[in-house]
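@channel anyone free to eyeball this complex?
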Amino acid sequence: MTQIQTPGDKPVIELKNVNKHYGSLHVLRDISLSVGKGEVVVVIGPSGSGKSTLCRTINRLETIDSGEILIDGVPLPQEGRELAQLRAQIGMVFQSFNLFSHMTVLDNMTLAPTGVLKLPKKQAREEAMQLLERVGVADQAHKLPAQLSGGQQQRAAIARALAMHPKAMLFDEPTSALDPEMIGEVLNVMTGLAQDGMTMVIVTHEMNFARRVSDRVVFMDGGSIVEQDAPEAFFAHPKSQRAADFLQSIRAPEKL
Amino acid sequence: MSAPSIRERLYESPGPKTRRRIAAFTGVALILLGLLLFLIVRQFALQGQLQPRYWDFFLKGSTWRYLGAGLLSTLKAALTAAVIAIALGFLMMRGKLRRFRPVRWLCAALVEFTRGVPTLLLIYFFFLVIPRMGITIGAFWRITLPCAISASGIIAEAFRAGVNAVPVGQTEAGLSLGLSNLRVFYQIVFPQAIRFVIPSLISELVIVLKDTTFAYVVSYADLMQNAKVLITSHDSLVSVYLVVAVIYILINYGLNKLSDRMARGTKKPAEAGQAKRRPA
Amino acid sequence: MNLSTLLTQYGDLYLRALLNTWRLTAISFAGAFAIGVIVTVLRVCPVKPLRVFGDFFVQVFRNIPGAAMLIILVYALPRLRVLLSYEMCVIVASVLIPSAFCSEHLMSGMNTIRPGEIEAARALGLTFFQLIVKIIIPQALRSTVLPMTSLAVGTMLTTALGSQAPLRPHQLELTGVVNYINSRAVGGILAFAVSAALYVATALVIGWVGGRIDRKVRILR
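replying in thread with the prediction:
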């Protein structure tokens, strides 16, 4: 378990003064954030705070208006093969799973390893089966995504991203579309990944998970990073009023 | 809430190199399309088809009055055929949903027949066979009836799709209130179904309208037929047929646009049901 | 005239007409599909003038009546020094009109693709070309089997335009043959019934094949 950020180590992901607008809406305001190797950063905040957008700018699914994004110290390419190559090194897990609906789970797994990494088909299949085993859906390998439960689909989607041997993983609200009883199985897989030292940026509403698994919590509101801190400190003593209000608002229903 | 079409989703926002490439291709495309247009116009000019005598009579009111009269006959035939087709289609749809097998089979066979046979064959039937059977009908009906029959099967299927789009829960709720089957259908299911069906009925009108252009087979004085007269009186085939084709295209384009707009207004319950599954 | 005399006298003609209808349908459908694909590529490409041209093409041929189209090909084109054989005119009309509908079906097939899957393909590092070949085309084709089946039947119905061109007897298709027989003898209802039955049977076979393919490749969502 290597999760201590040694200063001087180049961050895997680094955002410098990133700004983005949707028309007149300023969705990302001067965001600066760096994620070290093996670090697990959880991004939380009210809906509309820009946390999903932030996550999606890291592999340029969203473009930015100004600022800089560096991956391993290298600026994010803007287009073409270089961009595709870079994306191949960063895994992404979506809220709505986004498995390719016309392919079996196994074909979903091997598409990019054979097509992008040019692995031999046999090796890709073997690795895919191992990963599916690891996330607990190996018995579903030959089914189509629609035949799986939401939790199974999301675990397969995580395995699909892992099959590319990514240097970092982005999770964009990975449990928000799941029925409550399936959330745990997905979080367990993510916890295992964190323990194995994967660099992760996770946008989520699961506060217990954030507290347990993350190295750092980033709180966003209104397109800005309001504060960031170690999880224990953040949840016990949020420094800003906005974070305190937010934590209050999400805790309230649990008391009912 | 309309999802962005595939045209937007297929591409990401371009980087500088991509933008330059698109600009270059846009230039080349404009040149090629301009060249194509030039070649077509040149061919018209070389063959003398741009001479004023082929086009100046379109400036006369009488030309347009004559074409307008033809268009009116075309629309009259198409609308009549559409109304008949809707009635027939409705009956066939009701028949196909009947429990009594022979009726169901008969209607299913009629649907397959009308969908599988070209309108022209039916027109020839009304033109060549019906009179020999001792039944005399005018040119108007000789074109309207086959067009109507030809469209009825597709309309029956459109009705059926509309009825199927109404959630079963509606029928169950109606029956559980003690309403009769007939009441449930006419008071609950059909009024909901018709909303989904109207866009496809409008696009059916386009098909019927196109089919009526065969009216010259039965010598009904529609737009095409009047165009022919215009051609003989002005000796200008190319210009008249092009103008007439454009008239047809514009009318059908308008109808299709109308149908699209109405389809966008009605959201199918199946889609509405899917939408609520995802909390944002 | 009863069925057996009709068939002994005109059986060969019907057979040839059936084969001609099949041939015209097959050629036209293949052509319509090819042009439909090309036009669809133009309509979704990022070059604006090509998109506009593609849309224009589709609106023209989607909305022009078959009769008007054929008349222009047969009578107007020769005056512009573009000479096509009569049969070629029928084929061109039965290619261009269905090709517009083919493109419309492909567009709506592509629109059924969930945006998230396109993003996922990008996030995995697929290039644009791989995205098109591995995700867009397979999904678009799979979800357009039934519309394409109707299009094949529609193309068959369009080939009845052949009865409106002065084709020679050996070139007659199923509608033209009825007209031909009726102008020589009193074929009556029977002459029509034979052609109609052959049309409907062909349509049913096309529909059956399409249904089977659809069941095999349809995408569960």
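from a first look: Chain B has twelve helices and no strands.
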